Amino acid sequence: MSCDDELRLNFEDLIQKGNRLVDALSEDQLVNIVGASKLKRKVKQEISFLTKVLQKNLMKKEHVLCSNLHHLEAVVNKIQQTSNIFAISKTFQFTDESKTVKKINVDIVTEDGTKWIKIKSRNPKAITQIATGDSSFGQKSMIDQAIEYLQCADQNPAMFQAPKICIHFAQGVEATLSNILKNMNIDVSGNIISQQLDTGSSFDELTSTSIVSHTDLQNRRSESEQISRDIQKLNLDVSTMIAYVSSLTNGGSDHLFHDPLLNQQAEWERRRPVKPILDALFQGKTLIACQNAVDDFKTIVETMAGDEETRRAQNLINSIQVVPNTPTAKAMALEKRGKIKTRSINIFGTGDSLGAMTVTANNGFIRSAQSQGMDFVTYVHESRALTENKEIRCDDERS
């Protein structure tokens, strides 16, 4: 076989590998995960490039060796081994010590956002050499990157704490570098390889420098990690208070309504009752609601609720702690458009400022905030309307 024929076969094999990655990212369990389509586009771009080069007979060995498909394959393989994926290929922004705004891409976000996984697919010896300064000018070492990951995580808390960083080395990592990363409070996965290079003195210097450079950050993260993941304070949105007192969720889901939306909600409630979910969530928790939420809830109840819904609403208000509107600067920075209104900013922002999980059915606000780069700690449930008065009229007309 000639060199050209062998190179062509290598191209064809690599393109087939790319197509397999596209198929993997199209599976039902992945297709709806945030960022999966973005990763799939990256794979397709690589396939398109390789296909064009192959068709024009412009193949070079470097095209195969340096193709990004090798790294993307490592990412997809790790995705398939990971459960409870929150997002894929998600970009986060942070400010470094020189006040420069930077961005990093996290390959896999898991455990409700509290764990970030970065995939490294380079040769372990090359990673070690770069870490000990044996690299071209401007090339970041693994330690430099790790410090940036920690800084970024510290500035992008999930569940009110800095996400845990895990670096997965698809081709393995040499033991000394692995130990340094673990000492920086970073999880390491992948095959641990016994040290082959004579880099002891370089690593001694590197370890000393790394410890000094990230000590303050590590102290801040230790304080953050003292916060319990089991959040004890729940911030109720108007949509949650309405759902909790609705006739639909309190035995009235068998009624019929003129409004198709209410009939749909009644069917949902028969299939997936909301009240038991909220009761289980509320148990043992401190319930709060900001003044804006309570005032608007009262107005809605006065306008639309039936007698029993009104009674349940008063009991609910009596059981929660009403707090002032104190939205965080993060929430206040949201641009008001679409689903982002002043009330939602006050509600979600107050929960954020008080370290409370916001319970809501307002998915529209969450998506709109995410489109502006803002994430809030939330528990989302299905919406339910106040229906008591409408079910009475419908029943009367049917009779």
UniProtKB/TrEMBL annotation:
Residues 21-202 form the DUF5614 domain. It holds the Pfam family DUF1308. InterPro entries: DUF1308 (IPR010733), DUF5614 (IPR041076). Residues 234-393 form the DUF1308 domain. It comes from the Eukaryota. Belongs to the UPF0415 family. This is DUF1308 domain-containing protein. The lineage of its organism: Eukaryota, Metazoa, Ecdysozoa, Arthropoda, Hexapoda.
